[in-house]
Structures are given as structure tokens and as C-alpha cells.
């Protein structure tokens, strides 16, 4: 089973090697890695060309992330299509193998798993854990989605559902998944493992202004797809996200103390 992985890049020279190498190390041997570059002014493209594992490279100006992703979907030839952003990398070398095994053994249209958020300067020190385990499509009216960097779907379903809506600045992934889960009722399966390490600071978590745009675009997506929601529903996810961060840090602190106690003993 062939897996196409799309990486959209723009001036990504500082991180693109980690992304490419995490794909190149995968144990599954039928991977098509597509680099869709937005006309980088640094040496992103030159770095990508160093790797034989990169199957396809195009570099030209575009209108942003979602146009780049759509170019990749159109060019992809795999049975399964997913996205690994240029700031992100796979958690282990067997992620794609695990994805393929789930598709091969089940009658599912799409799979997803969990992500760890990290910083640029400490890439192996998670600061937040996002689990998709409890996701259910009805939760989308509250603004919740499974971890998008872990979402892989059969190419034939992309052909039916369509591409990402390029009129959205940040939340086109939300609108696309809304169509997948709530309109087209795809069959999906959760993989209980950390699949991707995701650096903070991307367009979706950059600052307060980005969260304001996300809020507005979530309302727009729900309205355009005739799914009832309201501002109160969408606001509820923010205290829940804060609670997740607090619990993760408390758990991490407690675990660290326990490890110190064990080490002393």
C-alpha cells in the first residue's frame, strides 16, 4: 500500500531536514514524499533536493498553506494521503507502518492519533499532549477536531469530498474535517499512540490574533455546512485546552519527582 505524505514549505531551512529524515527512516518501504514549496527565499529547496527519499518537489509562489496542500493532493499517487508539516516530525520510525497496518486490516476510510507539542529549541521535551482518543464528530460544534497532523485518508475519499477551502486563512483543516466527519460520514479509526511531534508557533497557535481568526472561521465553517453551533459552544474549548496543559504539566512534574526518588533509592 502506497502512502503519499505532503509537506508544505516556505523558508523552512531550519527544520526541513528533521521532517524529511523522519520520513526517510520509516520502516514502510512504499512512501511518496511530496515537497510543495511556496517560493522560499532561503535554501529549503536545495536541502530537499539532497534527499533521494523525496519523490516530488515543486517551488513556486502560492496563496498560502492550503493552496500548497491542495497542490500536493492533486499530485499524490498513493493509496493513502496525509500531511507532515515542515515544522513537525514522526514520533517513531514505525508510524507509517502502523498506519498501513490499520488500513490493511480494517474497512476504514481514515485514521488519526495523538500529537505532542514541542518548542523549537527543545524538540524532545513535550510541553503539551493532545489526545484524539475521545473525539466524536458531534464535538465539532464545540470546535474540537482530532489531531490534524495525524490524519490520513484514502485517496478515493479525497476525490469524493474535495480539497481544502483556500478562502480560509487558518481553519481550513477544521472545515475540511467537518465535511469528512459530519457531511460525508467517513469511517474512521483512532490509533492509540503518539504519531507526531509538532512545534508550536505555526499559523494556528502563533498568538491571540490567530485564535481570534480561528474562532471566526470555525463559526463560518459550521454555518456553511449547516451544522448548528454558537459562540458559547465554541468558547468552551478554551478552558478545556488550558486544563489539558495544566494536567500535563502536573503529571510531568510528578513523574519527574518519582523518577528522582527511584534514582536515589
What does this structure look like?
With 265 residues, the chain is an alpha/beta fold. The chain has one domain (3-264): Spore Coat Polysaccharide Biosynthesis Protein SpsA, Chain A (Alpha-Beta Complex), CATH 3.90.550.10. 40% of the residues lie in helices and 20% in strands. The chain contains nine helices and nine strands. The chain has helices at 16-24, 44-49, 65-75, 95-105, 155-161, 172-183, 208-224, 231-235, 237-264; strands at 3-9, 31-37, 54-59, 80-83, 88-90, 110-118, 128-130, 152-154, 188-199. Strands 1, 2, 3, 4, 5, 6, 7, 8 and 9 form a nine-stranded mixed sheet that branches. Helix 2 links the parallel strand 2 and strand 3. Helix 6 (172-183) packs parallel to helix 7 (208-224). The longest helix has 28 residues, at 237-264. The protein is globular and about 50 Å long. The chain starts with a strand and ends with a helix.
Please write out the topology.
Layout: E1 3-9, H1 16-24, E2 31-37, H2 44-49, E3 54-59, H3 65-75, E4 80-83, E5 88-90, H4 95-105, E6 110-118, E7 128-130, E8 152-154, H5 155-161, H6 172-183, E9 188-199, H7 208-224, H8 231-235, H9 237-264
Parallel strand pairs: 1-2, 1-4, 2-3, 6-9
Antiparallel strand pairs: 4-8, 5-9, 6-7, 6-8
Helix pairs in contact: 6-7
State the end-to-end distance. Answer: 49 Å
Strand content: 15-25%
Arithmetic mean of pLDDT? 88
The biggest beta sheet, please? Answer: 9 strands, mixed
Q: Helix and strand succession?
A: EHEHEHEEHEEEHHEHHH
Counting structural domains, the number is 1
Quaternary status: single chain
Low-confidence stretches: 257-265
CATH architectural designation: Alpha-Beta Complex
State the helical fraction: 40-55%
Overall 3D geometry? globular
Query: Per CATH, what is the topology?
Result: Spore Coat Polysaccharide Biosynthesis Protein SpsA, Chain A
Total E-strand runs: 9
Structural category is alpha/beta
Spell out the CATH superfamily: Spore Coat Polysaccharide Biosynthesis Protein SpsA, Chain A
Q: Regarding CATH, which class?
A: Alpha Beta
Amino acid at each position: 500500500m502506497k502512502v503519499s505524505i505532503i509537506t508544505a514549505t516556505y523558508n523552512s531551512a531550519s527544520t526541513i531536514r528533521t521532517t524529511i529524515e523522519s520520513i526517510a527512516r520509516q520502516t514502510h518501504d512504499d512512501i511518496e514524499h511530496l515537497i510543495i514549496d511556496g517560493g522560499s527565499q532561503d535554501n529549503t529547496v536545495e536541502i530537499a533536493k539532497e534527499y533521494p527519499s523525496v519523490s516530488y518537489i515543486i517551488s513556486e509562489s502560492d496563496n498560502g498553506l492550503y493552496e500548497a496542500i491542495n497542490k500536493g493532493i492533486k499530485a499524490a499517487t498513493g493509496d493513502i494521503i496525509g500531511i507532515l508539516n515542515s515544522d513537525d516530525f514522526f514520533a517513531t520510525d514505525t508510524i507509517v507502518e502502523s498506519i498501513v497496518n490499520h488500513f490493511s486490516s480494517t474497512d476504514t476510510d481514515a485514521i488519526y492519533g495523538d500529537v505532542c507539542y514541542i518548542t523549537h529549541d527543545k524538540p524532545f521535551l513535550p510541553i503539551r499532549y493532545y489526545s484524539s482518543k475521545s473525539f466524536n464528530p458531534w464535538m465539532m460544534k464545540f470546535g474540537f477536531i482530532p489531531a490534524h497532523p495525524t490524519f490520513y485518508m484514502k485517496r478515493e475519499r479525497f476525490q469524493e469530498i474535495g480539497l481544502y477551502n483556500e478562502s480560509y486563512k487558518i481553519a481550513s483543516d477544521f472545515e475540511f474535517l467537518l465535511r469528512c466527519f459530519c457531511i460525508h460520514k467517513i469511517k474512521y479509526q483512532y490509533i492509540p499512540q503518539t504519531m507526531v511531534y509538532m512545534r508550536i508557533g505555526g499559523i494556528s497557535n502563533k498568538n491571540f490574533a490567530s485564535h481570534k481568526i480561528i474562532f471566526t472561521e470555525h463559526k463560518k465553517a459550521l454555518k456553511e455546512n449547516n451544522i448548528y453551533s454558537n459562540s458559547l459552544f465554541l468558547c468552551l474549548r478554551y478552558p478545556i485546552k488550558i486544563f489539558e496543559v495544566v494536567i500535563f504539566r502536573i503529571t510531568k512534574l510528578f513523574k519527574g519527582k518519582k523518577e528522582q526518588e527511584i534514582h536515589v533509592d
